[in-house]
Design brief:
This protein is an alpha/beta fold. The chain has two domains: 12-252, Ribonuclease Z/Hydroxyacylglutathione hydrolase-like (Metallo-beta-lactamase, Chain A, 4-Layer Sandwich), CATH 3.60.15; 259-399, Rossmann fold (3-Layer(aba) Sandwich). 35% of the residues lie in helices and 23% in strands. It binds MU-OXO-diiron. MU-OXO-diiron (FEO) is lined by residues 86, 88, 90-91, 152-153, 171, 231-232.
């Protein structure tokens, strides 16, 4: 890429020294199993000092969009340094093409990042490892690297621009939200809260202790932040403390008196049980979400669990096993390590009825405390069986009714 070019893709000036030069992915609907109904952005930032740095790149197919946006500000060949905050390919996929176009003097990453980039791209060039706290002077602009291992990969780091109190936070404080707007204060608040929570629930939930430590570290370092520029979704300029506060709450994970009932059904028997259990939970004072798995994606369910205190899962038995939708859900949730949940299993069956036991085993495996013995109904629940389901709901609901 040579001189500046005219293009449909322009940069967005964030400050006198920082431009957003990322890409908008309006079409993304599946981020390895996480349903992204609103698409996403891959944010990259240009920092102008005497030297010029590019912070992160974008997903591979968007390389030309990135280069075009850079070209609207400077010739890409003027970039001296590339900072790779994170090696996951939604941020580094375009790196080989950008390196070839820009020929930067140096590409910086954390020590783990250097290894990860080498193992991803097998390029014939060296990457430069930076340590936690190390600074890079651009001349008139300083970049400070903050290691954030396992937030959410071993290589993850953030970059801080102290003169402008601007934190390039990489995946943290992001969300999957494609928009023509670049700032959070230009987007409806409920959309921000919904998408930020969904992102946290589906990506960061298992790392909540690391998130809590990371927030402590930022506090300890006394880093003043006027703007948070994450790698996905909008930039926080008016009140960056708001999303930091949301993260503190989600990381603390205080459960509410909310119960999630997830089920699949063959001939509506397990569906009838789920409905009756939901009624019982309501009678006990719980806020109830009944989610039929044929109509709810797993990432929606993970979001609902973010502030829930109870999880009840139901499946009929098919070929001696729970239905595939239920097995899929349990496998997904196990990885997300939901915390502080009580729960129970239920389901109809015809002759063998293994599904309920399998669900209980899976719930125990994710440290859900079983509040009641699993409930099985042969073929079709009658009035008495449905009363039993309501009683199960009341029993589990009673365990969480005292929560906020
Ligand atoms: Fe961990 Fe947005 O990549």
């Amino acid at each position: 890429m040579g001189a500046r070019v005219e293009s449909a893709f322009g940069a967005v000036k964030l400050t006198d020294r920082v431009y957003w030069v990322g890409a908008i992915d309006w079409a993304l609907r599946d981020f390895h199993g996480y349903a992204t109904q609103r698409g996403t952005t891959y944010n990259a930032y240009l920092v102008l000092g005497d030297k010029v740095a590019l912070i992160d790149t974008v997903k591979g197919p968007f390389a030309k969009e990135l280069l075009a946006r850079i070209s609207s500000v400077i010739e890409p060949a003027r970039i001296d340094y590339i900072i790779s905050n994170h090696a996951e390919v939604d941020h580094s996929g375009a790196l080989p093409e950008v390196i070839a176009a820009v020929r930067p003097e140096k590409v910086f990453a954390s020590t783990e990042g250097v290894r990860a980039l080498a193992d991803h791209f097998h390029l014939d060039r060296e990457f430069v490892a930076v340590k936690d706290g190390e600074t890079l002077s651009l001349g008139g602009a300083t970049l400070q690297f903050i290691a954030t291992p396992m937030l959410h990969w071993p290589d993850s780091m953030m970059t801080y621009f102290p003169e402008q109190r601007l934190l390039f936070s990489n995946d943290a404080f992001g969300m999957h939200l494609a928009s023509s707007k670049r700032y959070a204060d230009e987007i409806e608040h409920w959309v921000l809260e919904y998408e930020a929570a969904k992102y946290y629930a589906n990506i960061l939930l298992p790392l909540s202790p690391v998130v809590a430590k990371g927030l402590e570290k930022v506090k300890r370092l006394g880093i003043a932040i006027d703007m948070i520029a994450p790698s996905h979704g909008p930039i926080w300029r008016e009140d960056p403390g708001e999303i930091v506060g949301w993260y503190a709450g989600w990381a603390a994970g205080a459960p509410k008196k909310k119960a999630v009932v997830a089920y699949d059904t063959m001939w509506q028997s397990t569906a009838a049980m789920a409905q009756a259990i939901g009624d019982g939970l309501s009678e006990a004072g719980a806020v109830v979400k009944v989610l039929p798995l044929r109509a709810s994606d797993r990432s929606e369910l993970a979001l609902e669990l973010l502030d829930a205190g109870a999880l009840l899962v139901g499946s009929p038995t098919l070929n001696n096993a729970a239905l595939p939708t239920v097995v899929d859900l349990l496998s997904y949730l196990k990885g997300l390590k939901p915390r502080k949940l009580v729960g129970a299993a239920f389901g109809s069956y015809g002759w063998s009825g293994e599904a309920v036991g399998q669900i209980e085993e899976a719930l125990r495996g994710m440290s859900v405390e079983l509040a009641a013995e699993g409930l099985k109904v042969r073929y079709v629940p009658d009035g008495q069986a449905l009363s039993g389901c309501r009683a199960l709901g009341r029993q589990v609901g009673g365990r969480i009714a005292g929560q906020a």
